[in-house]
Amino acid sequence: MDFTMRPKAQEILDKVRRMVRDEIIPLDHEFLAEVGKGADRFERTPRQIEILEGLKAKAREQGLWNLWRTKALTGAGPDALTTVEYAQLAEEMGRSHLGAEVFNCSAPDTGNMDVLARFGTEAQQRRWLDPLLAGEIRSAYLMTEPDVASSDATNIALSAVRDGDHYVLNGEKYWGSGAGDTRCGLYIVMVLTDPEGDKHRRHSQILVEPGTPGIEILRPMEIFGHDDAPHGHMHIRFTNVRVPADQLLQTEGDGFLIAQGRLGPGRIHHCMRLIGQAERALDLMCDRALSRTAFGKKLADLGANHDIIAESRIAIEQARLLCLKAAWMMDTAGPREAAVWVSQIKVAAPRMAQQVIDEAMQMFGATGISQDTPLAHMWMNARMLRFADGPDAVHRRVIGRTELRKHEAG
Amino acid sequence: MDFTMRPKAQEILDKVRRMVRDEIIPLDHEFLAEVGKGADRFERTPRQIEILEGLKAKAREQGLWNLWRTKALTGAGPDALTTVEYAQLAEEMGRSHLGAEVFNCSAPDTGNMDVLARFGTEAQQRRWLDPLLAGEIRSAYLMTEPDVASSDATNIALSAVRDGDHYVLNGEKYWGSGAGDTRCGLYIVMVLTDPEGDKHRRHSQILVEPGTPGIEILRPMEIFGHDDAPHGHMHIRFTNVRVPADQLLQTEGDGFLIAQGRLGPGRIHHCMRLIGQAERALDLMCDRALSRTAFGKKLADLGANHDIIAESRIAIEQARLLCLKAAWMMDTAGPREAAVWVSQIKVAAPRMAQQVIDEAMQMFGATGISQDTPLAHMWMNARMLRFADGPDAVHRRVIGRTELRKHEAG
Amino acid sequence: MDFTMRPKAQEILDKVRRMVRDEIIPLDHEFLAEVGKGADRFERTPRQIEILEGLKAKAREQGLWNLWRTKALTGAGPDALTTVEYAQLAEEMGRSHLGAEVFNCSAPDTGNMDVLARFGTEAQQRRWLDPLLAGEIRSAYLMTEPDVASSDATNIALSAVRDGDHYVLNGEKYWGSGAGDTRCGLYIVMVLTDPEGDKHRRHSQILVEPGTPGIEILRPMEIFGHDDAPHGHMHIRFTNVRVPADQLLQTEGDGFLIAQGRLGPGRIHHCMRLIGQAERALDLMCDRALSRTAFGKKLADLGANHDIIAESRIAIEQARLLCLKAAWMMDTAGPREAAVWVSQIKVAAPRMAQQVIDEAMQMFGATGISQDTPLAHMWMNARMLRFADGPDAVHRRVIGRTELRKHEAG
Amino acid sequence: MDFTMRPKAQEILDKVRRMVRDEIIPLDHEFLAEVGKGADRFERTPRQIEILEGLKAKAREQGLWNLWRTKALTGAGPDALTTVEYAQLAEEMGRSHLGAEVFNCSAPDTGNMDVLARFGTEAQQRRWLDPLLAGEIRSAYLMTEPDVASSDATNIALSAVRDGDHYVLNGEKYWGSGAGDTRCGLYIVMVLTDPEGDKHRRHSQILVEPGTPGIEILRPMEIFGHDDAPHGHMHIRFTNVRVPADQLLQTEGDGFLIAQGRLGPGRIHHCMRLIGQAERALDLMCDRALSRTAFGKKLADLGANHDIIAESRIAIEQARLLCLKAAWMMDTAGPREAAVWVSQIKVAAPRMAQQVIDEAMQMFGATGISQDTPLAHMWMNARMLRFADGPDAVHRRVIGRTELRKHEAG
């Protein structure tokens, strides 16, 4: 088990770290404060465009672009990063709000680009993959539905019926993350094509152009009351939406297969970004503990505060190492073998981040949940990730079954 | 130890329960959805006024008004409720967002009214207590300051200097809850009158009319990004604010004394309202567990869900009983003896509520953190109460010292 | 809900408290240190007999005898204690190792006496109940079996086949607590009489004289390596043991019915004794925190120790109140309604005690797990009670189902 | 960061694993069951000698001897194992009770041998190091004292006064692990040589021959009531014990320096052995979950059991990775830099093991705490390690201070 960064990767890491610290974090707050200043919360303001596109240009100049294309994904050649290496970059990006997008590494685009690269036709790739790789459009992945427990993906019910050389889509999706973005140029939609088929061959994935007639954006879903504009987690209704049949990914029934490969790396990225957020929360916690005085002492020297800081450090280190292990499994044993490791981090990392950020908030007093620190925002993100890409309970189920299977065999 | 409700109190409880369930909860969502529809987020909309004043009128008609005036507070006569009895009413009110205000029982008004009733002059009472009791104005209690660790109240620094028959106030307060409300007609302000005096005689409390020249509302403090309009937790600057000296409460140096008596009952009310919220979260959790299906089973029958429900039940019962014990101490031994019991519930109840609501959110999947349930709102309220009226660490310190003192003596 | 002690009960409580503190605790250690000094670990030494019988005599003299006979059990008359009152006595007894037996209130005898009083014939009562009430013999309750998951009592398999006017018993029981005691004069045995019958009518309970031919004591079960001599938790084999048919309790098939009523009060007693142990652990913790110095400070003033003490206090109070609530339900609503409350405390109290005692051990450093404090012994007892009378998971299942049933109905 | 085993180390690992599984574990129980069968609990029985020496001979034959001599310790040459490699061997050894001693890798001997190799004179090494390396004698490390909080080592008070060419020792030590062993041929004793000196130069370490006149073994300290014979954690009194001055290690005042270097690797070994124990507990838990039936289902399929197994797996993996990280720091950055990492695992690993073993016990029902599984024994060992080599609180303090120091600088 080897988590070493090669010198070349280390060099990239240093650049990413510097850019996050010196250029991105200083603009995060201003970017977020712009939300709602335009006519429409989901229309980016000129200043938001200036901030983001400016940073993207700088990233591209330094070659810090599409770094997610690891060997395990669609990367190739001796220079492609390993998942272990990229994970450490993702941690740095996670310290800032805008980081992932600046380096064209944000969810759900990376997963969608990977799907297109693996499973798309030449035509599909030219139409959607190229502008995604260029950072010109963004995309959404529509899986979760309001009326069924989507954590059991066999429940997915949005119907796609073949009619001539089109599929006709009817149903609803929600939590379509990124679908609020005015630049969103693609939905990858999990649909039910064969309701009577074998449980894991009933579904397909289809590429849908936003704005196709019959698509109605009902509302943004809110996370603790926030619409997360201009990104947005949209609730979308499909009513007789006609999609050309050549926009299907692979063949009918491949929906599960495609979905399965898609989620592993994305979960590692999410988790490593959370590690970055937890580190930042611990930084803030320590700074506050040293700079604030009560009862005649620094907060650091009061009560359990040393212990809280120590436990936060231990928790972060353990979660990071487990993420790296999952990344290493992805690199060396492939996504199928890595899956149970990814489930482990999907349980461990968001919970850890939630806990560490919560302690940081507490160290700040009421300021910790206010607009004066980024902690509340970070906490909500961590909390949301205990649902996104599968709730904890489903991942624990996977881990438990895998463990028991070893003993059934023996 | 006796937590019995007398028949008369039980009758009130039944009425409150019915009104909360049948009339208030059904309007909560509409009231909240109105926020931001007016010109100013802090200006109540006509529909908000209609909802709230309508409910208040109904409450008053049924005699469900100012129920907080227990014997332990300014109530009197054989009919006054005990703290134990009122606590059980507060639980019911807590199940809804508007409940407390509908019955003229909301924070910080109840504490402020109590202070006026105990410590106010006749003139002060006529000017502010009467309209508060009538539900015509609201009030704020300005204690916390941005620049000092206010959990140690000896740090409070907003200066009040005597100048003729006025005090001149300079400094800042934040988290002035309720100061955003356009009906807010009174600030009770903790001020530093004698910086060189004995540590517990340096401060005073003074009644300030909002809008007095020199008062500047800088911004609402946000709780997880929410301004809590039209209530508001305001950040306020005082610049040479001249306040008539007869608006001082009692005499100079009594600030601590007044503060100490004020917080105990309010904390019990907060905690009991949280019990109500936790009960509602458990209701929602169970309903979801029974109505949603995954992997061929009701959620209720999957994995640890029975255990989660059981642990939630145990946690709620324990917290409620401890709150009742604190209330009983307030009734029978008085606020000084009750203080350490109040500290216990102040640690236990918000944490419990936070945990139970968190589990309820998780049972719902991502819907649990969305606008489709009241859970996210309830969770943020519980989280905030781990700071409000003293952070957990300060209360634990009080409890620990009390415990150790028994052994030092022995 | 009323937990008040009547003056008469309070008087008894004061006497019990004094006797535990002044006479029993000072002899606990010597009693335990005698174990193994005789020829046989299960033969009480002369000094053990002297200690125990001396204390029993003193208890009887003061009328502190068979206090467990509450109204809810076989007590009667206006003077009988309520379960709520007795629970508070049990807490005091629990502070010492010998307490419960000194007052003739120890498990499993109280449950067995209650069963005999309710369900025994006149002849059965004269033969076994009278000497049990007099503290002359002791008894065991044989339920758990090594080969089946006995937490699901329908699994119980020890066979009792009618043969003329005898039953012939074959099978094994283990964890027969008290069966190691040389004074043990009765086994109440749960047996399978009708393997094909209705699931809850298959079993019966039968009174068995220890020493009946065919009974073989295989070994004492060990708790963390301790045989708990001279009490003992025995593993017993029955081979063609012939028991007169008139020793059956009630009629065939009543086994469940009898078992059900038996366990509720016993669990309350166990839990309240654990509260007593937790209080004693907290006492010890505080004393150590004040008397030991490291890094130039009292332990009390180092790190999280105030917080640990505070959390222990909160945890004990909550568990005690919940136990009293369960006792109050037993008194006012009866055992069937109280059952789910008993399940709640059965989960909450041992876990709480285990946690508080664990923290106390940690405060002592390695001394905390050594023979120099009673903490290790107390901890093992608390841990054992997470299995005895039903493991946590089974109780959580009961609570969860009860909670869900409220919502299924609604 | 690289945790790779070189092929040669992997080969050793495979051999160790096989020997532990096939030869050591099958004899563990018999060895332990022999305790107390001789005249003296601390006199090994012939069968114990046969078992242990037989296994040691087999280990030596295969070259599995003194494997602890890593490069970071006194090992040298290209073939010496790294700490990372040895840690993985220690995990395997930890699965069994006798494992560590079979490979001559048990505490406190490894630490003592290392001290002798680094700091001993030629004469000291010939007299004590050689027979220790040969597995002919064993040793104890006497640090902890009953009368002072020894977690703060500056408290150590056992006095050594120079008198001619001897030191005269007076005082008490307890928890002298291994001092009960009849083969114990050396005490390394931390003594106070200069009470007035600089805080970290007051102490020295001296080599003492057991049986020197004036040494009195008062009693074995018990761990949850167990004397851990024939190893023993002895309480020892020194009364005017005259020790030749040339048995001092290095020079007067070096006591701290020697102690500091000693404990790091030993803690890593302890923690990795606990990982092995936790893995074995999880194995047992899974086997039980699959083989036992209640309420018509395998335990595995009841309630939270999948979740419990999953959480155990996650906890073990995280702790193992953190131990390997600490080992890697020891290898690459040296003991001073590694210290805070060692503190992290010292907090995390015993707690994790305690928790996983506790869950395993619970899965077994009461059998889990009985002599029918090794779980209770393993649990007590894990619990003890939350004190041994520093209690959790002291390690958290180290971690917290290190973390804060980063921020004080910045």
Key terms for this structure?
flavoprotein (chains A, B, C, D), Butyryl-Coa Dehydrogenase, subunit A, domain 1, Acyl-CoA dehydrogenase (chains A, B, C, D), globular, 10 helices, homotetramer, acyl-CoA dehydrogenase activity (chains A, B, C, D), three-stranded mixed β-sheet, FAD (chains A, B, C, D), Butyryl-CoA Dehydrogenase, subunit A, domain 3, 9 strands, four-stranded antiparallel β-sheet, AcylCoA_DH/ox_N (chains A, B, C, D), Butyryl-CoA Dehydrogenase, subunit A, domain 2, about 15% strand, alpha+beta, about 400 residues
Description:
Four copies of one chain form a homotetramer. Chain A has helices spanning 7-33, 46-61, 83-94, 99-102, 109-119, 122-133, 255-291, 305-363, 375-384, 392-409; strands spanning 138-142, 159-163, 166-177, 184-192, 203-208, 215-220, 233-244, 293-294, 297-298. Chain A is α+β, with helices and mostly antiparallel strands and 410 residues long. The first copy, chain A, has three domains: 7-133, Acyl-CoA dehydrogenase/oxidase, N-terminal domain (Butyryl-Coa Dehydrogenase, subunit A, domain 1, Orthogonal Bundle); 138-249, Butyryl-CoA Dehydrogenase, subunit A, domain 2; 256-409, Up-down Bundle (Butyryl-CoA Dehydrogenase, subunit A, domain 3), CATH 1.20.140.10. Chain A has a four-stranded antiparallel β-sheet with strand order 2-3-7-6, with no helix packed on it. In chain A, strands 1-4-5 form a three-stranded mixed β-sheet, covered by helices on one side. In chain A, strand 2 and strand 3 form a beta hairpin. Chain A starts with 6 loop residues before the first helix and ends with a helix. At the A-B interface, strand 8, helix 8, helix 9 and helix 10 of A face strand 8, helix 10 and helix 11 of B.
